[in-house]
Amino acid sequence: MTMRSIQSSIRRWFRGLGLGASPVSPVPAIPTGKRSVNLALQGGGAHGAFTWGVLDALLEESDLDIEGLSGSSAGAMNAVLFADGWMKGGREGASASLKAFWSEIGKQMPAGLMSQRQNDQVGLSTLGTLLYRWSGIFSPAQLNPFDLNPLRDLLVKQVDFERLRQQSPFKLFVGATQASSGKLRIFREHELTVEVLLASACLPRIHHPIQIDGEAYWDGGFSANPPVAPLFFQCDSRDLLLVLLNPLERHGVPHTLSEIEARTAELAFTANFLGEMRLLVQAIQASAAAPAGLGPLEQRLLQLRFHMIDTSQLATFHQSDTKLLAYGPFLEQLRDQGRERARAWLDGSSSAVGSQSSIDVEALFG
Question: How far apart are CA 188 and CA 330, in angstroms?
Answer without folding.
Answer: 32
